[in-house]
Design brief:
With 748 residues, the chain is an alpha+beta fold. The protein folds into three domains: 213 residues, CAP (Pathogenesis-related Protein p14a); 78 residues, Immunoglobulins (Immunoglobulin-like), CATH 2.60.40.10; 372 residues, Fucose-specific lectin (Neuraminidase), CATH 2.120.10.70. Helix content is 14%, strand content 34%. The chain is built from 14 helices and 42 strands. The strands form ten sheets. It has a six-stranded mixed β-sheet with strand order 1-2-4-6-5-3, with helices on both faces. Helix 4 packs across helix 5. The chain is globular and about 90 Å long. The relative contact order is 0.10.
Length: 748
């Protein structure tokens, strides 16, 4: 470290306020790297334990760090008060802090010293600073500190610290010079030491910075019994005697910890994907959840009432009874097998504006049947939009459907090799928090694994199905330093170099993007974050378009990256980048193309001959397309498919598009009569056609939400939706079978 790298201690002004009960005071001191970065040997502490009060304070701190705006609303505080613009930019989810023994001892001793020696300061009577006192206990780098006196309630002192700007900067890591390598990630507290001194109690909390070498990354959390049913740890609810094992991808235990009465745990691990196994030692009841660890701490709590009983190893009067039987559902209908035009040839016809119902005649067919009358997790009410992805190799292709369940948790449905479906409760498997928007899914070409993502109040959640079939999750917002919460629906796309991007909007309308770095490391690919609106558009004096509703994305044949959405006037606004550009740009495509306003359902489909097609539904329900092919130069063509081909009026929010392997172009959605309809065109056809699949299939499975289309390398076409009961529905066609329908929720 050189002199220019040193950051100096800043002691905040002391805050005094009087109440009817006591004089209450608080003071804050931020951490700095020490002037001499000497290597210290960590002090080994045997049988160390934390009090429930100390654990509870950290739970409050981590709750605030996970979602500062929610904490502000809960406590009735303005957390932006007295912050600079740069500090406000850091008022986003931060990584959770892990309990540290040395910081806890230093905090306890300082609270005790202030009480017994009747002083109130960050500098003790021997002249030691917070970092001095932390290193005296064996801490290897430096620490920041908040102190308070006169508060007899932990919730009250936590609120007071957040209400004070200098204390708030410590709790929420808001200092302008904090960055990816210089920030807090460990914590200790010494609380509410009762005294007969000037103030009735003294409290200290310390925030640790580990330096840049040999930084520990923790999986941490609490195991508790939620006696008061508030979904939050409370003093007295900690579960003792729970063994936490960390298992790697080979199922080998790489670390373990056993809880004491407070129920907390913190385990240092290397970056990777892990299974965290909680086992109550006395009973064998257990829970397994999966987690992704990158470069920051990860919090994973466990409620004892979600633990599963130990496996039955036989013996005793535990078996018997009927284990099977019952109706397992019917089969799919027969009917006409379709046939007709299955594509082929780049013969043109009808321009580059089409959408097709899956390559030729839609055939007949009956319902797809399926399953008993179970409803996973008793889901009721409408689910979120259902999205799908396809994993395929030379022998097999597997569909995965993901959606936000009616209780706002993440769920998935996996297709088996025999065509059966398996329900996957990602919330139960991973402990992931509630979602605030719809899920999306994709297969990453870098590792051939299935991924999903969704926004949440605490950040952008990333799920991955591991090679062993289990799901794990991580929080990209807290793991990528300086990133922000996405409040809109999200979109994901993979560029021609195989790099995955996830984009969405902040609460202020800025477009932001997470990118999975194309450079592989020993621990896989890392994610990066950029604010496209701030760092690209405004840097060129370009305004960020005010987008409303969902956004879409597409990648052109020349690796042009495009994110598009509608503004309040129905204009198509595009934010785009092309090879050779340093920064992203923006254009009003409606102004360029002369397109009429779109009310909803913006969707894009690309063709193998380089065509770009932007479709949507206008205020009267007509399907319109603005389309371009390379031979047009800078000109676009606008076509009203509904008028030109006498199609039905469509519900804008329901529509989407897809392209078949043979070049069939399709726009699908619900028409205003509630039927599933498809505008479609295939190579060799002169005109568009419209298929009413609800009539063709002849079942009562009618979706009420958005429709999404998925095609597979083997030529299958799948249309996804959900009904009012929260059931996932699929309509599908394959080259050797007619259109069918299935309630996937029941089939699973």
């Amino acid at each position: 470290m050189n002199a220019s790298d040193l950051r100096h201690d800043r002691h905040a002004a002391r805050i005094l306020r009087r109440t009817a009960l006591a004089t209450r005071s608080g003071s804050a001191c931020r951490c700095t790297p020490p002037l001499l970065a000497e290597s210290l040997e960590p002090r080994q502490l045997l049988a160390f334990s934390w009090s429930a009060q100390e654990v509870y304070l950290l739970e409050l701190v981590n709750r605030a760090r996970a979602n500062p705006m929610a904490e502000a609303a809960l406590l009735g505080l303005d957390l932006t008060a007295d912050l600079t613009d740069a500090e406000i930019d850091k008022l986003v989810p931060q990584e959770p802090l892990a309990l540290n023994e040395q910081l806890t001892l230093a905090s306890r001793l300082h609270s005790q010293a202030m009480a017994e020696q009747d002083f109130f300061s960050h500098i003790d009577l021997q002249g030691n600073s917070p970092t001095d006192r932390a290193t005296a206990q064996g801490y290897v780098y430096s620490a920041g500190e908040n102190i308070a006196a006169g508060y007899d309630d932990i919730d009250e002192v936590h609120r007071a610290w957040l209400d004070s700007v200098d204390h708030r900067k410590n709790v929420l890591s808001l200092y302008e010079d904090f960055d990816e390598s210089f920030h807090y990630d460990e914590f200790g507290a010494g609380l509410l030491i009762p005294t007969g001194a000037r103030y009735s109690s003294y409290s200290t909390q310390m925030f640790g910075y580990q330096g840049i070498n040999d930084v520990a990354i923790y999986v941490l959390g609490v195991v508790y019994t939620d006696s008061n049913a508030n979904q939050f740890y409370t003093i007295g609810e900690g579960a003792a005697g729970v063994q936490i094992d960390i298992l790697d991808a080979t199922s080998a235990v790489v670390a373990t910890y056993t809880t004491d009465a407070a129920g907390n745990y913190q385990i240092a691990v290397e970056p990777g994907t892990y299974t965290v196994r909680f086992t109550t030692i006395a009973t064998g009841y257990h829970l397994e959840q999966n987690v992704i660890v990158s470069s920051t701490n990860v919090k994973l709590d466990a409620l004892t009432d979600t633990f599963n009983p130990p496996p039955d190893n036989g013996g005793g009067d535990t078996g018997g009874g009927d284990t099977g039987g019952g109706d397992t559902g019917g089969g799919g209908g027969g009917g006409d097998t379709g046939g007709g035009d299955t594509g082929g040839g780049d013969t043109g016809g009808g321009g580059d504006t089409g959408g097709g119902g899956g390559g030729g005649d839609t055939g007949g067919g009956g319902g797809g049947g399926g399953g008993d009358n179970t409803n996973p997790r008793n889901l009721t009410g409408p689910a979120g939009t259902v999205n799908g992805s396809v994993w395929a190799d030379s022998n097999y292709e597997q569909l995965t459907f993901v959606t936000r369940a009616p209780d706002n948790t993440a769920i998935a449905f996996k297709e088996g090799t025999d065509g059966t479906w398996t329900f996957e409760d990602l919330h139960a498997m991973t402990g992931s928090p509630a979602l605030t928007g719809d899920m999306i899914s994709w297969v990453d070409p870098s590792d051939s694994l299935t991924y999903a993502a969704a926004p949440s109040a605490s950040g952008l959640l990333l799920f991955v199905r591991n090679a062993n079939g289990s799901w794990a999750f991580g929080n990209l917002t807290t793991s990528v330093y300086g990133s922000a919460i996405i409040t809109s629906q999200i979109t994901a796309f993979t560029d021609l170099e195989g790099v995955v991007h996830i984009a969405g909007l902040k609460s202020n309308g800025d477009l932001v993007m997470f990118t999975r770095d194309g450079n592989s490391t020993a621990n896989g690919r890392a994610w990066t974050y950029s604010n496209i609106a701030q760092d690209h558009l405004r840097a060129q004096s370009l305004a960020m378009p005010a987008l409303v509703g969902p956004i879409i994305s597409y990648v052109t044949d020349w690796n042009g990256l495009n994110i598009a959405g509608l503004d309040s006037a129905g204009n198509i606004q595009s934010i785009w980048w092309a090879p050779g550009l340093d920064l992203w740009r923006t254009d009003n495509l409606s102004a360029i193309t002369g397109a009429s306003p779109i009310a909803g359902g913006l969707t894009c489909y690309l063709t193998s001959w380089g065509g770009i097609n932007l479709a949507g539904v206008d205020a009267s329900g007509d399907v319109t397309v603005s389309w371009w092919v390379p031979s047009f130069g800078g000109d676009w063509v606008n076509t009203n498919l509904t008028d030109q081909f006498s199609g039905p009026s469509m519900v804008g929010v329901s529509t989407s598009s897809y392209v078949t392997p043979w070049g069939g172009l399709n726009i699908a959605g619900r028409d205003t009569s509630g039927n599933l309809s498809v505008y479609w065109w295939a190579p060799g056809m002169e005109n568009w056609e419209v298929a009413n699949l609800s009539d063709v299939i002849g079942t009562a499975l009618l979706p009420t939400g958005a429709i999404r289309g998925v095609t597979t390398p083997n030529g299958r076409i799948i249309l996804l939706g959900a009904n009012d009961d929260g059931h996932v529905l699929r309509y599908w066609w394959s080259p050797d079978a007619s259109w069918q329908a299935q309630d996937v929720t029941l089939a699973s």
